[in-house]
Design brief:
This protein is mostly helical. Helix content is 75%, strand content 5%. It is built from 4 helices and 2 strands. It has a two-stranded antiparallel sheet with strand order 1-2. It is elongated, with a radius of gyration of 58 Å. It starts with 13 loop residues before the first helix and ends with a helix.
Length: 219
């Protein structure tokens, strides 16, 4: 039968746990012995049971293996300590160098601002002068670039406003013409109404004498 995969968790049943411990302990001791014989390795194995019972195997004397282990761990720890100390010293040197650079930069900044110039010789003053002239030249160049960019933006805005103004002017020209056409139509309607007011028809209801009196009255 194929055994199922053992789950790596604590065995709850005490009897099964003790049986498994005994089997695995014996197998581990056997593997340690085989490793020491086949590979000529120094092997030291210490096992404590759940009840505190000691089981051990050593290819040589156990105390010698433990002493060797302690010496090895102490050497490793000392190496780590020395490495940490070296790193700390290196960090100290780097910090000191950085602080020195900062002091030099601060001194240079004060000199560029015209401070603490009493200790400068003629060469240092000439160098400061060249640096300031170069800085002023860069500032002027940048200022002209900003002026040019702003001028171009204003020109674009001016062109846009001019185009909008022309469009509005065309619209204003078209509206009076529409008003003039409307006035002309109203004038024509008034003329036609006046003509109709003066037109006389031949239709008359009443006696002929009354029509004659009516015509005389109109005239």
């Amino acid at each position: 039968m194929v055994r199922g995969k053992t789950q790596m968790k604590r065995i709850e049943n005490a009897t099964s746990r003790q049986v498994t411990f005994s089997k695995r302990r014996n197998g581990l001791l056997k593997k340690a012995f085989e490793l020491s014989v086949l590979c000529d390795a120094e092997v030291a194995l210490i096992i404590f049971s759940p009840r505190g019972k000691l089981y051990e195997f050593a290819s040589s004397r156990m105390q010698e293996s433990i002493a060797r282990y302690r010496m090895h761990t102490e050497d490793a720890q000392s190496k780590n300590i020395r490495s940490d100390e070296q790193n700390i010293e290196q960090l100290k040197h780097e910090t000191a160098a950085m602080m020195k650079k900062i002091e030099l930069l601060e001194a240079s900044k004060r000199k560029l601002l015209g401070e603490n110039l009493g200790t400068c010789n003629i060469e240092e003053l000439q160098q400061l002068e060249r640096q300031l002239e170069h800085s002023v030249s860069n500032i002027r160049t940048k200022k002209m670039q900003v002026y040019k960019r702003q001028t171009d933006q204003l020109k674009e805005k001016g062109n846009a406003l001019a185009a909008e103004n022309a469009s509005l002017t065309e619209k204003c020209k078209l509206e009076p013409e529409r008003g003039t056409n409307g006035d002309r139509a109203n004038t024509r309607f008034a003329d036609i109404s006046e003509v109709y007011d003066h037109v006389e028809t031949d239709l008359f209801i009443g006696l002929p004498e009354a029509r004659i009196r009516c015509l005389l009255f109109k005239n």
